[in-house]
Amino acid sequence: MTSYANRASPASQNGPASPPSPRLLRAFGAMLRDAWREFLDAKILLLLLGLIGLLFAVALTGRIEPQPAGKNYLDLSARAMAADLEGVDLSQESVASMTGRLNGSLVWITKAEPLLADLPTGQWNVELKRSFVPLVAGPLAAEEVQARFGRIADGQLWRVSQAEETSDSLGRTVGMQSFRLTVEPGADLRLLWPHQFSLFGDSLDLTPPRGAPLGLEVLILQKLLTTGLGGSLLLLVSVVVTAAFVPNMIRKGTLELLLVRPLPRWVLLVMKYVGALVFVTVLLGLLVLAGWLITGILAGIWSPGILLALPTLILFFALLLAVSVCVGVLTRSAVAAMLVTVTYWAVLFIAGQMHNQVVESRFREENIGKLRPTSVVDSLRGAKPRREEPLKAGRVPFHRTAVGRVAEGIYTVLPHTEDLDNLVDRQLMRDLAVSGPFRALVERAEFSWSRRSGSR
Amino acid sequence: MEGLEKRYGQLQALSGVSLEVEPGTLFGLLGQNGAGKTTLIKILLGLVAPTGGRASLLGQPVGGLAARRDVGYLPEDHRLPEYHTAPSLLDFYGALQGLTRRERQARIPPLLEMLGLKGREKLRIRGYSKGMKQRLGLAQALLHRPRVLFLDEPTDGIDPVGRKEIRDVLLEEQRSGVTVFINSHLLGEVEQLCDRVAIMRRGHLLVSGTVAELTHTKPSWLVGFDLPPADLRWEGCRLEPARPGLWRVHLDPPGADSLDRFLAQAHGRGLRLRHLEAERATLEDLYLALATHDRQAP
Questions:
Q1: Closest alpha carbon within chain B to A259
Q2: Minimum Cα–Cα distance from B5: chain A residue
Q3: Do residue A50 and residue A111 come from a single domain?
Q4: Contacts with A11 from chain B: Cβ below 8 Å
Q5: Nearest-CA distance from A49 to chain B in Å?
Q6: Angle of CA points B213, B219, B221, to nearest 5°
Q7: What are the residue ranges of helices labelled H in A388-435?
Q8: Mean pLDDT confidence for A415-433
Q9: Does the pLDDT of residue A17 top 70, yes or no?
Q10: Does B245 touch chain A (CB under 8 A)?
């Protein structure tokens, strides 16, 4: 006999510590199936899954066509080789420190013809000239050109399959060499090659006239379908559907039917949480997989970085679900759980954006007077890097304003979900050669050439 | 259970309730709304902890997980998850209860048939009538073959035929040794079904005993004739209309001789007897008497 006198603890805590595990597993399986049924029961789920389906269907009508650009990329490689020959390590040097150091070599393309067509997949016949100051630098062997041309630090635009020198000994003496090369695409060429992206066949063109680098297009498309619009829609649906889970479970008349089972109460709640999470995980998995497949089919690029979006989306939803369950238990209202969760999401989003602003504002302040990087697209269009300018007198940088400080304070306290998103972005950029060191290399090569040709 | 107490803030829901129910009994707990019937059941199920006293179920202290394995419960105003079908819901509860897949597959179809839910396996509970939900509620309570059943208003919202079926099911369970504990305010229902009855009021247990103990024979009789009697002033007895076609006869003095005299008079008046029944006090009479008492002396 147990006496309940003077005891206020919940009844369930008086049982044995935990039931045997096969029993627990069976119960867990049942909870999963129950969550699945409840999930599929929601009409809004079908509606919004339809919307996501539509998004993917529209994406599938997309066409990605390469634009003529071979000459540009051969030029770029020539400039990079010039920097390389000067011993400038493009992966280490900052643009500013390179200024004025390119005194010796100059390399340029005099003739470039595609064997078949101006595509990022075919061979080219190239004629290359190099000028150098005889006393400062020596002549270059064809093998060296073969090894160096098309490489930009750890990236490779072109591979040289054949190289022969066509210059005579007089040219070599006065510092003028010429070479004939046969080049084929390197590993990174296609990602940087400008492509046109259009929907519904050719009828809706989404890119600028000269196209955008394929890697960038793939990145935007993958982001849109997974962590962007597609993921947000799916998470929103999931929040709406799962908000009712706990209030439904603990409403009077339903709760009793669960509490009389030989299971501790916390097990029921945890199982409900995990059950909801498992099914959202399945849906998110399908979403990310579909995003990966679609970009793979459209662009032929199967970089796995986007799969990183799955764990980050799951982690983010686990956080939202925790809030939803907590509010659901406290208020027993699905509407309250949904509204608070969506509000929390909005707060996280805004705090993340503000945090990005603060980071950028700090970065600018630290880099006043230094050159700021330009995007690949801009640099391919010939835009010159600009210097970071100080703010106009009387203006306070964002991170020093009251709003900035409060925003950063809030961000510090809240879960750093923006970091999850940035993590995925960084991985995508690395995979798709859109940013990171390679992007910087392209910019530096371009810059160094501009400086040099300007002084000619 | 001994001296059970339960307080909800200012409200004393149970005060000093002591009761013992023998295994295999069909036990009826009566009382007005708010009398404490449901609270009592919830304590026995371990859903709420009592603030005083002690109780045990099947030899186990209440509230433990072990005690819950052998207990079936049908809550009052239960709301079954509407997205389930009957088989899927029973499968869900069965698994939580610890039944293996094989046990569930073997148990569920005959159970549905027994409760008249066969042929609706594909229908979601959302589309169920109140009666069907009640039957399904009973099914989930019986699913794991519990040794004790707690049923809160089990025949609520069910038509008379359905009630008869459910009574038969409960009697069958009792025959196989299950203890059935019924909360109800349907007095006739309880009277027909239960062996033992207890009546609660305002958290107190007023009376308990067998139905026979609590109901007794009255001195009056109910009679029916082929024609209505012309006047109600008879010798040695008093007649009053009881129900349509039936009259209540108060004999003076009560006894077999007075009854003979009454029958002779009827014969003399040219009335033929069609109905004769000794009147009994029902649970309703007892219940109403207690309720009236309650109103007079709060």
A1: B47
A2: A5
A3: no
A4: 46-49, 62-63
A5: 19
A6: 110
A7: 402-413, 417-431
A8: 81
A9: no
A10: no
Q: How many CB pairs under 8 A join A and B?
A: 122
0.90 exceeded by pTM: no
Residue A97 confidence (pLDDT) above 50: no
Is residue A202 in a domain?
A: no
> Where are chain B's structural domains?
2-210, 217-280
Q: Tell me what pLDDT residue B278 has.
A: 81
| Domain assignment of residue A108, given as a range | 70-192+441-455
Whether the CB of B78 is below 8 Å from some CB of chain A: the reply is yes
Say if A400 falls within a structural domain: yes
**What is the C-alpha to C-alpha distance for residues A147 and A163, in angstroms, rounded to an integer?**
10
A13 within some domain: no
Which chain A residues are within 8 Å of B57, Cβ to Cβ? Answer: none
Instruction: State the CB neighbour count (10 A cutoff) for residue A10.
Output: 14
Query: CB neighbours of A343 closer than 8 A, spacing ≥ 6?
Result: none
Whether a cis peptide bond, with omega within 30° of 0, leads into B61 is no
> Could you tell me if residue A180 is inside a domain?
yes
Same domain, A47 and A87: no
**A96 and A117 share one domain:** yes
Exposed e or buried b per residue across A367-392, where buried means at least 16 C-beta atoms within 10 angstroms of its C-beta:
eeeebebbbbbebbeeeebeeeeeee
> What is the domain class of B217-280 according to CATH?
alpha beta
Contacts of A31 in chain B (CB under 8 A): 96
- Flag whether pLDDT at B160 surpasses 70: yes
Whether B217-280 and B2-210 are alike in CATH topology: the answer is: no
A23-44 average pLDDT score: 87
Q: Are A177 and A268 found together in one domain? A: no
Kindly list the residues from chain A whose CB atom is less than 8 angstroms away from the CB atom of residue B40: none
Classify domain B2-210 at the CATH class level: alpha beta
Q: What is the pLDDT of residues B9-35, one digit of tens each?
A: 667 778 778 888 888 889 998 887 777
Judge: A41–B48 Cβ closer than 8 Å, yes or no.
no
Q: Measured between alpha carbons, how far is A113 from A97 in angstroms, rounded to an integer?
A: 35
Q: How confident is the model at residue A455 (pLDDT cuts 50, 70, 90)?
A: very low
Q: How many domains does chain A have?
A: 2
- CB-based contact B77 A4, cutoff 8 Å: no
Which of A16, A393, A336, A59 shows the shortest CA–CA distance to A199? A59
Lowest mean pLDDT among A45-49, A104-108, B50-54, B157-161: A104-108
A interface with B, Cβ–Cβ below 8 Å: 1-5, 7-12, 14-16, 19, 23, 26-27, 29-31, 33-34, 37-38, 40-41, 248, 251-254, 256-264
Nearest CA in chain A to B57: A1
ipTM over 0.85: no
